[in-house]
Specification:
Arc Repressor Mutant, subunit A, Hypothetical Protein Yqey, Chain: A, domain1, mainly alpha, 151 residues
Length: 151
Amino acid sequence: MPSEIAARVKSDTIAAMKAKEKERLGVLRQLGAALKQVEVDKREELDDDGALKVIQSYAKKVKDTLAAAQNADRAEMAAEAEAELVIVQEYLPAEMDDDALAALVVDAVAETGAAGPQDMGNVMKAVMPKVAGRADGGRVSAMVKSKLLGR
C-alpha cells in the first residue's frame, strides 16, 4: 500500500511551491528526494512504516547538524537547522511523554524478567517495537538503564 506520508510530503511540496515558501520548499524537496531514493534503491514503493523510518533518519541527520553547528558557535547554521527540524517534525508522530515511556519500560522489565544491567539488551528488544518512532533510542536506553539500576 502506498505511503500516505510520502503523498503528503508531495502535496505539501506543491503547496509550498504555489505559496512561494522558499525555505519550506527546499526542506520538503530534500525530504521527498530522500523518500524517492529509498524507493529507487529498494525498487518498490514505500509503505507508511518505511516512509516513517526514512523521515526519522533524515530528522536524526538534521539534529546532528544542529548539534555540530551549536558546538562550533555557528548561530546562523544552527538557526537554519532548527527551522528545518521544525518542518521535518510535522511528518513524525508525536513524541511519547516520560510517563508513558516509563510504563512501557516497566512492563518490558517484568515481561523479560530482567534483573539488572546485563539484561538491558533484552528489555530494549521488547520496548523498541512498541515505541515505534515516538521516542529517541537514546532516551529509551537511558530510561531502561535507570529502571534496571533501580533509580
